[in-house]
Design goal:
- By secondary structure, the chain is mainly beta.
- Helices cover about 5% and strands about 45% of the residues.
- The strands form two sheets. A five-stranded antiparallel beta sheet has the order 1-2-3-4-5, with no helix packed on it. It has a three-stranded antiparallel beta sheet with strand order 6-7-8, with no helix packed on it.
- β1 and β2 form a beta hairpin.
- The chain is globular and about 35 Å long.
C-alpha cells in the first residue's frame, strides 16, 4: 500500500506466504517507521524509528497521538474496540476461522498496534 499518508510493505516467504516482516510508515505516523520482523520461528522483533520496542514478554510502548503498542503472552480482547472484533474476512484460512485463532496461547506472544 502506498498512498499520500500511509505506506505499508509486507515481506513473506514461500508459496504459503509465511510472514517475515511488516513495515508501516507515512505522514500519519509523522513520517516515522514501525517495523515488525520475524526473528525466528517463535519470535517477533518490533522497532519504531530504529529503536527497539516491546522487548519484554509483557510490555507496552505509547507515544500519545502517534502509536500504542502492546506485547502480551495471551489474547486480550479489551485492547480492541468493538468494530475491530466484528471484522470478518472473505479469505479462507487453512488454520481455521477468525475466533479459533485465539483459543491457544500465541507462540512467541501477541503484538497489537493502534496507529
Amino acid at each position: 500500500v502506498h498512498s499520500r499518508d500511509v505506506w505499508i510493505q509486507a515481506l513473506s516467504k514461500g508459496s504459503a506466504g509465511n510472514f517475515q516482516g511488516l513495515a508501516i510508515g507515512g505522514a500519519f505516523l509523522g513520517n516515522r517507521t514501525l517495523l515488525v520482523v520475524k526473528d525466528t520461528a517463535f519470535t517477533l522483533h518490533a522497532s519504531f524509528d530504529g529503536v527497539d520496542i516491546l522487548t519484554g514478554a509483557v510490555d507496552e510502548y505509547i507515544e500519545p497521538g502517534v502509536i500504542e503498542g502492546y506485547r502480551s503472552e495471551t489474547w486480550n480482547a479489551t485492547l480492541h474496540n468493538e468494530e475491530v472484533l466484528r471484522v470478518r474476512t472473505q479469505i479462507q484460512f487453512s488454520v481455521g476461522p477468525w475466533p479459533e485463532r485465539f483459543l491457544k496461547k500465541p507462540v512467541g506472544g501477541l503484538l497489537l498496534f493502534k496507529l
